Amino acid sequence: MPTAKYKRVLLKLSGDFMAGPSGYGVDPVSVDALSEQLISAVKCGVELALVIGAGNIWRGSDSLARGMERATADYMGMLATVINAMALQDSLERMGEFTRLQTAIEMRAVAEPYIRRRAIRHLEKGRIVIFGAGTGNPYFTTDTAAALRAMEINAEILLKATKVDGIYSADPLKNPTATRFERLSYIEALNLGVEVMDSTALSLCMDNKLPVMVFKLAPPDSLVKAICGEPIGTIVSR
Length: 238
Fold this sequence. Notes:
11 strands; 238 residues; 37% helix; 8 helices; alpha/beta; two-stranded antiparallel ribbon; Carbamate kinase; 9-stranded mixed sheet
């Protein structure tokens, strides 16, 4: 069994990883496949926390384009992240893994309220901690929530799982000549206007010297490789 390079990490997942072939909703087969990757990572000896997006259920940008008020759209997105978090928690626990779900918006019937010290204690006990409802505030993305939670729990790195294998000079799906970067500084990433993470989250990481790894969540051992420090994806750091 490979050994983790990091003691504690926060993994940011897109809600798209919860969807099946249709690209919408929660697909149990996709969720179970994701859970298997997470369990393999934990077996390497890492303390793992997660933040999940909600793009498979709700995209606030689409609603804004139709005239919905921004704060309302954002709160709806936060609630959708809790649906994803509950589905992932159920999958992990069916596989025998101990988890805790904490939400930034109190909903005690389904999750603990977010308490920093309690979250750290859960991690120390070997539980996977899932953070739902973003930061609990509108106008902030789940990327920003991931950066914030990573720093609050003293994570050593923020892992951003995507469907591309790092940061490119242009969209590799549209431009086959795009160059992949192995390492970038925060300023370089901000100047590039990378779309894999918003500028607020990147700036927060830069101000607090939190490294970010952008990598592709495929093949199935990719998360283990990232946690063990293998050179996959792109590192953004000082």
